[in-house]
Design goal:
With about 425 residues, this protein is of the alpha+beta class. It has twelve helices and eleven strands. Its cofactor is heme b.
Length: about 425
């Protein structure tokens, strides 16, 4: 399990406003919901708004949204949203299989519906006349909806020749205890938002839009720390209590795009994957009862970092470069040879890097009171054979953390580039 989170965090003081699909400010736009929220005092009427006016006409409609509710991510863009977007407080992952008899035509119609629904919801608008009103009083809350295609999708749609080589099934790993019913799938959807009702609203809308074309194969729910919950922006903690996500690649790094996104030209990938990415999804159960029996010092030795602040055991602060050669007075390595943070470092894996953007999960307790909790591990890379696979193989050979986790579900999906104005996600594949 690689260190899973994005260092960026929003604070209540952060200026509200739309974000493009790569997380950059796009203040020139204004959502219909935000406009309606300030329209009450002027009597503004939007002639074609229809249900949208009724949707936003709550008694408090004239009250400005908070920074949290007003956060908006743009649907259209070079890349799909939800890849470099700062981590959100709530998430849903859902995989679908195309229904019997459904093929390329039905898949294209479905992606067209899904894209339109995602665009509306991410702008803070209702889905249409059939909207459930679940998020009636909320703003967009940084909602993102991301779509991907699994290996089996290309067989179902007769598009095998367009299937990328990078989408070949992942190899088996010794830590795998995979439930096939909760792995893979024809289609994959990631939903994230900073409000639980907004996230559920999107999940329900996507599921309803599937209609008779596709059925849910599996669905998982996750969470992260809410924006503004800490006194200052900081790297998130996982359910083991560890600061988790230090040294995650960041937009703006010199080699970020080439590691995370498929180039628009000169690539071995098919043309429809230009500006897209590959996502590995793993449901990783944390054996918390065993972990919590360790002393803090023992936990730190497993990870290779201090639990209090995420600093490497070799000294310094969280962002200090880890000294892998430093020894103590007895001549022992300060950062153990099998420490998780040592093994997952890019410079220990031929430069392999990926953006880890996970959610924690808790699905209750088993009959013995053991928590079913852990990490919905989500990592993005331009090629999983150069990102996830070499790191996981090395973890398989001796990661100290492996005895405290279990990989219970897995999926690999091709996530095409963002849709341009007037397009739907996957259009270049399905209509090319």
């Amino acid at each position: 399990m690689a260190d899973p989170s994005i260092p960026q965090a929003r604070t209540p003081e952060a200026p509200p406003g739309p974000l493009d699909s790569e997380g950059a400010s796009a203040r020139e736009g204004i959502s219909r919901r935000r406009l309606l929220g300030t329209a009450g005092a002027t009597g503004l009427v939007l002639g074609a708004a229809g249900g949208a006016v009724g949707y936003a006409a709550a008694p408090s409609a004239a009250t400005p949204l908070t920074a949290l509710g007003d956060g908006q991510v743009m649907f259209h863009g070079k890349h799909q949203p939800g890849i470099t977007t700062p981590m959100q407080a709530r998430g849903h992952l859902v995989a679908f299989d195309l229904a019997a008899g459904a093929g390329r035509k039905e898949a294209a119609a479905l992606l067209r519906r899904w894209s339109d629904t995602a665009r509306r919801l991410m702008a803070g608008e209702p889905t249409g006349s059939g909207d459930t009103d679940v998020a009636r009083d909320a703003g967009p809350s940084s909602l993102t909806v991301t779509f991907g295609f699994g290996h089996s999708f290309f067989v179902r749609t007769g598009l095998e020749k367009q299937r990328p080589v990078a989408l070949d099934p992942l190899p088996d790993f010794s830590s795998d205890h995979l439930d096939k019913a909760r792995s893979n799938g024809d289609l994959w959807v990631q939903i994230g938002a900073d409000d639980a009702l907004v996230a559920f609203h999107a999940l329900r809308a996507i599921q309803k839009d599937a209609g008779s074309a596709a059925r849910v194969r599996w669905q998982m729910n996750g969470f992260n720390r809410s924006p503004g919950a800490t006194a200052h922006p900081m790297t998130a903690r996982n359910l083991m209590g560890q600061v988790d996500g230090t040294r995650n690649p960041k937009p703006g790094d010199a080699d970020f795009d080439e590691r995370i996104f498929v180039p628009s030209s000169g690539s071995k990938d098919p043309a429809w994957m230009a500006n897209g990415s590959y996502v590995v999804v793993r449901r990783i159960r944390m054996l918390l009862d065993d972990w919590e029996q360790l002393s803090v010092k023992a936990q730190e030795a497993v990870i290779g970092r201090r639990k209090s602040d995420g600093a490497p055991l070799s000294g310094g602060t969280e962002t200090t470069e880890m000294d892998l050669e430093k020894t103590d007075a007895a001549g022992n390595l300060v950062v153990p040879i099998n420490a998780h943070a040592r093994i997952t470092r890019p410079d220990q894996n031929g430069g392999a890097a990926m953006v880890r953007r996970p959610f924690s999960y808790h699905d209750g307790f088993d009959a013995d009171g053991v928590p079913d909790a852990g990490l919905l591990f989500i990592c993005w890379q331009a090629d999983p054979l150069r990102g996830f696979v070499p790191v996981q193989r090395k973890l398989d050979r001796g990661d100290a953390l492996s005895q405290f986790i279990r990989h219970e579900a897995s999926g690999l999906f091709a996530v095409p580039g963002g849709a341009a104005e007037g397009e739907y996600v996957g259009q270049r594949l399905l209509e090319g």
